[in-house]
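Continuing the series of single-chain predictions for the mutant panel. This is the parent chain; the variants come on the following pages.
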Amino acid sequence: MTDVSCDGCSEEVRTALSRTVSLAVDGSDVDSQTLCPGCFADWIERYERRMQPDPAPSVEGIDFVE
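Parent structure:
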């Protein structure tokens, strides 16, 4: 097995433990990161937090439909 460096924390991690996160837009690669398990968990947490929809606005008990 090969050791690689985590793009998040720069620690060396075995290839079998690393995770690669790739971002592509319209078929073109935009970004690719190799992450250790801890940095991958942090990345997933940030992704989930950012992808949560904002609560729908309400005015005096009236809910708006988005």
